[in-house]
Every structure is written in C-alpha cells, then in structure tokens.
Specification:
The complex is a heterodimer.
Chain A (H helix, E strand, L loop, with lengths): L8 E4 L3 E2 L4 E7 L22 E8 L2 E8 L8 E7 L4 E9 L4 E10 L1
Chain B lengths: L1 H24 L10 H9 L5 E2 L2 E4 L3 E4 L3 E7 L9 E8 L6 E7 L6 E7 L5 E9 L4 E12 L5
Parallel strand pairs in B: 1-9, 3-9
Antiparallel strand pairs in B: 2-4, 4-7, 5-6, 5-8, 8-9
Classes of the chains: A mainly beta, B alpha+beta.
Chain lengths: 111, 152
Amino acid sequence: MAASSVKPRIKLDKKEAKQGDLVEVKALVSHIMETGQRKSADGKVIPRKILNKFTCTVNGKEVFSADFEPAVSANPYIQFKFKATESGPVVLTWIDDDGSKIVGEDSIKVS
Amino acid sequence: MSAFMTRRQALMAGAAAVAAATLGQSTTPALAANNIDEMTKAFTGGAKPEAGKVKLDLPEIAENGNTVPITVSVESPMTDKDYVSDVIILADGNPNAGIATFHFTPASGVAEANTRIRLANTQNVVAIAKTNAGKFYTASKEVKVTIGGCGG
C-alpha cells in the first residue's frame, strides 16, 4: 500500500472559534514506523521506514511542525493547539522516508 | 551559617561518594550509553539549559514501551516578541537519543504537544526548550519500562 493512499484521522475540538481561541488538533495516521533496529527471521536488518516530518498549516500559514525519529510509536499520534485568527483549511502533512506524503485536511471557521 | 553549609557540603559529598560506589557496581550500561550528549550539544550549541519552565508529563511506570504517551508543555506568553520556537525530546537509554522535535510559532498560541513514543528500557526522558531569544530550559523524568519497545 502506497503511503499516499493512507487516510489520516483528524479531529479539531471545535469547528467554529472566536478570534484568539485555542483550537486543539488531534491526529492519528496509520504507519509502521519501522525503526531500522529490528531484524527479520533470517537475521537481516529490516530497513528504517518512518514518517520523519509533520507540518500543520492553517489557511496556508504554518502553525506547528515536528521532526520524528524512529522512537516515535507506530501509527503516530500527535496532539497540539493553535490560535484561531482566520478561517480556512487546516492541512496536516506527513512526509515519509521514501519522500511520499500523507495529507489530511479539515477546516476552521473563525468569527 | 557557614558551619551549616560546611555540614551540608560534607553530607552531599558523602552522598555522591555512595552514589558513585553504587554506580560502579551497577552493570546497566543505559546511562549516557547513547548519543544524548551530542544531541543536546547540537541542539543548544553548547549553552547550558536552565531547569524549569518545561513540564514533562509521562507515566511513572510504562507497561508497554512500544507506546508511551508523552505531553510536553513550556511556560511562555507565545507572542511575536517572546515565544518558544523548538522543543527537543531525548532519551538516554534508547539506541538513539533523539525522539522528536516540535517546532512552535506564535500562531501555536501555546507551547504544548502530545505524542506517543518508544522506550527500550527504564530510562530518563529529557525535554529541552529553546526560545526565540536563544534561551534554553529543560526538564527530565525517569520512566520505568516493564516491556521494552525496541526489540524485534
């Protein structure tokens, strides 16, 4: 299964926010996060394959990002907040070691 | 006062000697066995982080080292002039010290993030925060791990 066909689960704690409110984002994505430390039954090292970068933009502006190492659990979960300033799409992007991307989108309405 | 300090210093020296002796007998290679010192230096550029401002929320005992919930938060006004830009999470007993780095912006509103991590064995987890002014703050917590999370 190509990484790009994975659909992340994204939940915002509110759909509509007042200016300056904190919006909490929770996101979960299916991924093996292979550490590169494990060995297969025949003694070969299973090559590393993780999502190494996560970015969240709101209305095109980056609000939060993270670099992941192999010590992040399989099916990585991330939770963070952002300050509501303008309405627009909330886009979450994960980048795989192989360069492919997993993208999920939600939106926020700011009044 | 000075007599009291001398007594305290003597006590501390004694405690340190005991700790050193205990460490000498211990066979666990976990302490600083990985690249945590290099990773810390690469992040801080050699500056010594101050204790405080950082809150690290981890379970005392993690039954499953494959998925240990961690929340890190840093006290900061998070304005354009004064905000926490980066927080690195390190562990001293994993094959690699690095776990994750969070990058915040004033638009984050609050310097707080939560994820789930792997811990190979009982060890210290360290968070170091960097502000836009180039100051560093740190906190650490020991997590006892029942079943390690890096084995095959």
